Model the fold of this input.
Amino acid sequence: MAVTLDLYSRRVIGMSMSERMTSKLVTEAFKAAAGKRNIMPELVHHSDQGAQYTSQAFTSMLQKHGVTISMSARGNCYDNAVVESFFHTLKTECTNHSTYQTRDQAKQEIFDYVELFYNGQRKHSYLDYMTPLQFEKRLAPLCLSY
Done:
């Protein structure tokens, strides 16, 4: 699984799931996010230095969209800490205690967890105990005035 997460609202805005961690997987997650949001020139994409994120296909796509690429040095996880925290939460609250009969069943449960619960119901202390969707709705009038 790969996600594109809005660092400000903590909302998962793009995700992709596959049997393997490839450049196509992370590219699809970013494309899903780009389909939901306008890509602004000041956008920064944080990731680790995994082969899928350093691939020509992925970095070229980001550069084509004018996205600044930010990768931590090897062994330094701070740029990607929020996403690592998300995956810990996903495992703790969703997948660690589940047994799936099929890959499709797992994908559906994860999709439902992210879209329905994580984005829409799970309160985050970082967001003053609002959900990512509540936080974004609260900010919507401010964004329209720009």
Observations:
- Residues 103-118 form the longest helix (16 residues).
- Residues 2-144 form a domain with the Nucleotidyltransferase; domain 5 fold (CATH 3.30.420.10).
